[in-house]
Amino acid sequence: MAQPESSRIGIIGGGIVGLSTARALADRGHRVVLVEKEDGWARHQTGHNSGVIHSGLYYRPGSLKARFATEAAQTLPELCAELGVTARRTGKLVVATRPDELPRMRALAERGRANGVPVREITPGEAREREPHLVCVGALLVDSTGVADFAGLARAFAAELTARGATLRLGETVTGLLETDRGVMLQTTRGEIAVDHVINCSGLYSDRLLPDDERRRLRIVPFRGEYWTLRRPELVNGLVYPVPDPDLPFLGIHLTRGFDGHVHVGPNAVLALAREGYRRRDLAPRELADTLRFPGFWRLARRHLRYGIAETTRSLVPPAFLAGVRRMLPEVAPGDLVRSPAGVRAQLVLRDGTPSDDFVIISRPRITHVVNAPSPAATASVQIGRHLAGLVAGRA
Ligand SMILES: Cc1cc2nc3c(=O)[nH]c(=O)nc-3n(C[C@H](O)[C@H](O)[C@H](O)COP(=O)(O)OP(=O)(O)OC[C@H]3O[C@@H](n4cnc5c(N)ncnc54)[C@H](O)[C@@H]3O)c2cc1C
Q: What DSSP designation does 374 have?
């Protein structure tokens, strides 16, 4: 149902996607009420990621990820500058460390070109001019990649919204959605909020508010991504990524000189035993049981058993992790890596075990659910917000 301009729209989630969507709706003249369960903004995925402005290189041509990230890589650094948020266009290398990775590396370059991404193959010697400590047999250079303080950007969006009179409510959890003749009632830990339309941007919990029939088809599976800080940051100048496995939704352990100048190594991808399980010992029995009851999880696990075992080994056995890093950066020694805070990805998995490879939005007349907004959703948050605002207005 098309929403008249100046409808009252409820948004669940104060990560970068919810805040950016609120901003796009306010631009269209809607009244916005945003509800976030934490006492501050960007406390989950938005505040625990690699901070990379992705170029659009990896994604299926024509997908929302490809379209939105390619556009965002061109525009986000300037928006950050306007809002006083740290961001830089740094460029990045994708490196093959074994000859058998070269065909996949070249296929990736083709995909990038199909998406309109400025990507070119360079020689190992040229790669070493940028990254003198690197070892590789081939490399791609992507100029439009950068780094940004996504949590800072989310906070800047919140400050803008407050200045424009939007209602932002922290420390309040949405527990249910009740459709009425006139709109939707958001049921929260503090009472009820009547709105015309709801957009659910609750990240790791975005499947929780779906009707049961939808929920049977899909589930958010939380994958922890662990990071290490490199004690010798002088070994890495910019961003260095491996050639990813095209069957997996993760990019592989990369070396990232972030917006703050620190060099992070990671993230890996291991099953988290709680949706907000940032530490290995974090366990939420009901959440884990919910994952284990879902047939799609077992199908995914069977299909990627070897990868899962290897990632878990690298997580538990530091020398195994180090060996992976040393394929790109042989000078890294055991004492050079210090564990740093992890992030947890909200990955949508379908009942047949397929991890969704695009942003997924379930749009109902009065409720829109963003059920898959993993990487590069921080990069593409402005484009996702505009897209959602367009959907709500019936103009997408
Ligand atoms: C390890 C890792 C590395 C990544 N690297 C990158 C990268 O380099 N570049 C990039 O572009 N993207 C990256 N991403 C992805 C990016 O961080 C996410 O796509 C993006 O932050 C998603 O934003 P969001 O607002 O949807 O989710 P979130 O930031 O998780 O926000 C959801 C919010 O909803 C709130 N919430 C949940 N349930 C409720 C409820 N019932 N009521 C009220 N509030 C609720 C939560 O508290 C949370 O604040 C990475 C992610 C991870 C985990």
A: -
Given CA atoms 15, 17, 22, 24 in this order, what sign does their dihedral have?
Answer: positive
Best probe residue, ligand 1, of 375, 381, 383, 388 (max atoms within 8 Å of C-beta): 375
Q: List the domain boundaries for the chain.
A: 1-51+149-217+355-396, 219-350
146 lines ligand 1 (CB under 6 A): no
- With a 6 A CB cut-off, is 207 part of the ligand 1 pocket? no
pLDDT tens for residues 124-155? 999 999 999 999 999 999 999 999 999 999 99
Is a pLDDT exceeding 70 seen at residue 3? no
Q: Which pLDDT score, from 0 to 100, does residue 395 have?
A: 40
Q: Which fold has domain 219-350?
A: D-Amino Acid Oxidase; Chain A, domain 2 (3.30.9)
Per-residue H/E/C for 239-276: EEEECCCCCCCCCCCEEEECCCCCEEEECCCEECCCCC
The CB density around residue 353, as the number of other CB atoms within 10 Å, is 17
347 touches ligand 1 (CB under 6 Å): no
Shortest-distance atom of ligand 1 to CA 370: 26
Length of the chain: 396
Q: Tell me, what's the pLDDT at 247?
A: 78
If you take atom 33 of ligand 1, which residue's CA is the nearest one? 13
Q: Is the CB of 321 under 6 A from ligand 1?
A: no
- Give residue 116's identity as a one-letter amino acid code: G
* Binding site membership of 187 for ligand 1 (Cβ less than 6 Å): no
Pick the CATH number of 1-51+149-217+355-396 from 3.30.565.10, 3.50.50.60, 3.40.50.2000, 3.20.20.140: 3.50.50.60
Kindly give the number of the ligand 1 atom that is closest to the alpha carbon of 204: 30
